[in-house]
TrEMBL record:
Pfam families, per the entry: Cullin_binding (PF03556)
Function: Neddylation of cullins play an essential role in the regulation of SCF-type complexes activity.
The protein, known as: Defective in cullin neddylation protein
InterPro entries found in the cross-reference section: DCN-prot, DCN1-like_PONY, PONY_dom
GO molecular function: cullin family protein binding; ubiquitin conjugating enzyme binding; ubiquitin-like protein binding
GO CC annotations, alphabetized: ubiquitin ligase complex
Lineage start: Eukaryota, Viridiplantae, Streptophyta, Embryophyta, Tracheophyta
PROSITE patterns: DCUN1 (PS51229)
Segments forming domain DCUN1: 1-169
GO biological process per UniProt: protein neddylation
């Protein structure tokens, strides 16, 4: 985090700025314990302060407005921090409600299918959102266009993303856009990037009923670590849980405003 951005963040939302600074230090290897241990300790410290986690989440938009997040790597780090702060009671996953609220803040202007994605998740997703699904949505938003060009049906996307693509094809297929969504159909009626042949993880389209309400979804059982620009590594890949190598981290010992910004 740049010093100017950190100083501005301290003035606007000090608790959120300090938490993000500590998070950056942990995942970048600047602290003294393992990454996992450091994140666990940071999470405990936040939870020990009543209302702190909710307060930080409430300041995410303010924090974004003053940080320098133009670089893709910096934004990816911030995006992962939002997932971290969205966890509740030590849970590994986050609720659909919390995930949608966070996506609508952090991905606005960065993901052209954001509204349709959020509406889809709210309507059909029955299970909490895993870190893997959270991270892979960012990769999806970067490599797939509005008309789904860039989507590889044979890629190892989380099931929820495969289901979303199938849903989009069914709802917006040529000549069959519902009147309620007609204004959104103009962006594309072709879906040039959608290969209708099912990939290894996809359900065959004939298994779906023509009714929108009968779409069956699955949770994401896998856990990925690194965002990939076009598609993620196969499940057999060996990776660490947080997407970073084992590195050093330390617990928060002081929430004072005197914290030094991490470069």
């Amino acid at each position: 985090m740049g010093s100017l951005g950190f100083e501005a963040a301290l003035a606007v939302c000090p608790a959120a700025a300090q938490a993000y600074s500590k998070y950056c230090g942990i995942v970048s290897g600047c602290e003294n314990a393992s990454t996992r241990e450091g994140l666990v300790e940071l999470s405990r410290t936040i939870d020990n302060m009543e209302g702190m986690r909710d307060g930080i989440f409430g300041d995410i938009q303010k924090l974004m407005s003053v940080l320098e997040l133009d670089d893709a790597r910096q934004f990816s780090n911030f995006y992962d921090f939002v997932f971290f702060i969205s966890r509740e009671n030590g849970q590994k996953n986050i609720t659909v409600q919390k995930a949608v609220a966070a996506w609508r803040i952090v991905l606005i202007g960065r993901f052209r299918l954001l509204d349709r994605w959020c509406n889809f998740v709210e309507k059909y997703q029955r299970h909490n959102i895993s870190e893997d699904a959270w991270q892979q949505l960012l990769a999806f938003s970067r490599c797939v266009n509005e008309d789904l060009e860039g989507y590889d049906p044979k890629g190892a996307w989380p099931v929820i993303i495969d289901d979303f693509v199938e849903y989009m094809h069914r709802i917006y297929r040529p000549g069959d856009c519902s009147s309620a969504m007609a204004s959104q159909c103009s962006i594309s009626n072709t879906f040039r990037g959608l290969n209708l042949l099912p990939g290894s993880k996809r359900k065959c389209p004939t298994q779906f009923n023509s009714s929108e309400d009968n779409v069956e979804l699955s949770d994401v059982p896998r856990h990925s670590l690194h965002l990939t620009p076009l598609k993620r590594l196969k499940e057999s890949s060996v990776s660490t849980k947080s997407g970073v190598s084992e590195c050093n981290a330390g617990a928060i010992t002081n929430w004072g405003i005197q914290m030094t910004a991490k470069e």
